[in-house]
Amino acid sequence: MSRVKRKGLSREDQLDRIFGALADRTRRRLLARLAKRPAMVTELAAPFDMSLPAVSRHIKVLERAHLVERAVDGRMHLCSLQPEPLKAVEAWLGRYRAFWTGTLDALARYVEDEQRIRHVPK
Prior knowledge:
The protein is mostly helical. It has a single domain, classed as Orthogonal Bundle (Arc Repressor Mutant, subunit A). It has a 3-stranded antiparallel sheet with strand order 1-3-2. Helices cover about 65% and strands about 10% of the residues.
């Protein structure tokens, strides 16, 4: 399992921050953009109909969740994706994968059985 505990936060607190950051579609779009390559804040803000300070606030939420790292060189702010925390989310979700897979498999069998019963000639 990946290392999640940072700066005194418990694993659960860190997951709360990550899921909170991912709960917003603007932040998910920012992460998707950063998955392609690092970008300046102004580049990240371009496709959004919001002010630069508003986009910067979204980036700060992502930084607090350790999903984004910002390098500052004078007035230039370069942001890059930090994927490590997403491994913790994947591990957390993985615990439920067996349950959902089993549930979906059972549902598929039920639907197939119902279809067979309805198509049996009398």
